[in-house]
Amino acid sequence: MCGIVGFTGTKPVKDFLLEGLHNLEYRGYDSAGIALLLDDNSLFIKKRSGAVDVLEDALHETDMPAQTGIGHTRWATHGAPSEINAHPHFNADKSLALVHNGIIENSYVLRESLEAEGYHFVSETDTEVIVHLLDKVYKEREDGDLLQALIDVSKVLEGSYAIVLLSSEHPGELFAVRNGSPLVLAKHDDGAYIASDVIALVSRVKHVITMDNNEFAHLKKDGSVHVYNDKKEELEHIIQELDVNHIPLDNGEYPDFMLKEMNEQPDVIERLGQDRFDAGSIRLDGLNLSDEEIKNTDKIFIVACGTSYHASLLAKNYIENLAGIPVEVAVASEFANQHVLVTDHTLCIIVTQSGETADTLAAARKIKDLGARVFAITNVLGSTAARESDGVIYTKAGPEVSVAATKTFVAQIVAVFFLALFFAEKNGRLSSEEVLSHLKDIQDLSVKLGEVLSKQEDYEKGSRFFAQAHSALFIGRSLNYPIASEGALKLKEISYLHAEAYPAGEIKHGPFALLEPGFPVVVVIPHDDTRAKTLSNIKEIRARGAVVLAVATQGDAEVEENADFVFWVPSVPPLLTPLISVIPLQILARKVALDRGQNVDRPRNLAKSVTVE
């Protein structure tokens, strides 16, 4: 969480910082600020509570020729969203300013120690502890080595962090450290760049360097970038080329990024399905598993958070049914406290859109330490998840700016389905012809998703009813339950309407008490082998006076007769119903949120990438 951007070079920095912060705002939008190194080597700092637009308005008439600066857009952890708690934070004489992403877990102890030495704190943040500690360590040195001071301070800090530092005593230079929270660097003719995400840099550079954990960077205005370990030994890094064609800088003709990204889902499926079948076998480039290892696999752990967890529940169903391998799905944040039993033939799969989700990475490291191999399904090339795993499947959805996941969820479903087919073919449960048939079904889906997305006006009446509700229940069976869970999550994320998902067969064990006249219930009921029992649930719900909105297969007259509202979807093969059923629930969530006057791209208290535990 939080967005970091910085530059030092030969041209004015203010406009770039604001541009970068706008592009990073999906990572946090509680407050924003910048620090600039002026021509007289003093630091100019401006911070505002609220969105980046508020900061930009405050700087509108400020002419700053500064060529070195840092910026930050915040998702609050320690301390409420406010101007005082906004970054950058600085020391007493404003000779140091820094921005920080992450959580310093021992900040309270460090703060007490610094206060005892006379340091005065003005904010509630853990970040201010870092800048005062740096001030102390740096001033105790006689050699003016700020990089070494940063290395020394990092050895005291506990937690995850990405820090970028600006000093009035080191004009034209930036210093940084990465430990758990992402940072990328770029060299260019006009200077050196740094950011927490490539989306901040895409308009300026074509190549980036991704920092690894416990690495330190020194950026200079001549464009040079130097990366060191904690022994101050310079390191070499692979330079990655950016795929600028798939990095959005604006929402184009769409009113919001969420709608834009929802409408990109047919293209995502089509792109993922290309070139997956070669020489009679399914291809999963980057998954470094031999046929023998797959045949000997006795268990798979799948670990994820949020929307990725719902995709993982589908993965369990697909892998167990198609490949016959036992699968256990765990919420990553609970995995740290779970007693995990592994053998030499156990695999772990982590599912994470950003590849930087702290809880998921911690779970992967835990199971790797136990001797299991770890594989990642992620959307971000070169992410921590990709680099630390034994193999990776990229979902190729392109950057997703809206906080609520849409196209990346669909991409994850396709990826885990491919994974199930891969395992099933390798262990002999499916023939090559059967795998090819499934792949063709996937390719046919893109057109059908487009059909659903083109009829969003059909959902107006049902959506308006939900906009007046105070709570809602989502139900489904088997493959439809994870989709009901995702629908409930989307609704609460962006409309702030409470929603809860339940397996349809479980609603008599408690949730029935919620039912009363007018209470809304969403039922995911495509035409599959669970339809008959779920239809009985609809009748029971209607008998209590509750209002049913069904997601059903086109032409199902019995569902239409028993539901108050129906969101129709085309018929698809049973295993692929999640991919078509989730689309109406995304549309519902967005329309309800808009009817309730909410910002669908930037829901309160949430951020896209959760890089702290």
Largest sheet properties? 8 strands, antiparallel
Estimated radius of gyration: 25 Å
Counted beta strands: 27
Structural class call reads alpha/beta
Helical stretch count?
Answer: 19
The strand line-up of the biggest sheet is 3-2-4-1-10-9-11-15
Low-confidence stretches: none
Helix content: 25-40%
What separation lies between the terminal Cα atoms? 11 Å
Q: What is the overall pLDDT average?
A: 91
Broad shape: globular
Beta content: 15-25%
Description:
The protein has 613 residues and is α/β, with parallel strands linked by helices. The chain contains 19 helices and 27 strands. α3 (107-116) packs across α4. It is globular, with a radius of gyration of 25 Å.
Show the helix and strand layout:
Blueprint: E1 3-9, H1 14-23, E2 31-37, E3 43-49, H2 52-58, E4 68-74, E5 89-90, E6 96-104, H3 107-116, H4 127-140, H5 146-154, E7 159-167, E8 173-179, E9 184-188, E10 191-195, E11 207-210, E12 215-220, E13 225-228, E14 234-235, E15 240-241, H6 257-263, H7 265-273, E16 277-278, E17 281-282, H8 291-295, E18 299-304, H9 306-323, E19 327-331, H10 332-335, E20 346-352, H11 358-369, E21 373-378, H12 384-388, E22 391-394, H13 407-426, H14 432-453, H15 460-467, E23 471-476, H16 480-495, E24 498-503, E25 520-525, H17 531-543, E26 547-553, H18 557-562, E27 565-569, H19 577-595
Parallel strand pairs: 18-19, 18-20, 20-21, 21-22, 23-24, 23-25, 25-26, 26-27
Antiparallel strand pairs: 1-4, 1-10, 2-3, 2-4, 5-6, 6-7, 7-8, 8-12, 9-10, 9-11, 11-15, 12-13, 13-14, 16-17
Helix pairs in contact: 3-4, 4-5, 7-13, 7-14, 9-13, 9-16, 13-14, 14-19, 15-19, 16-19
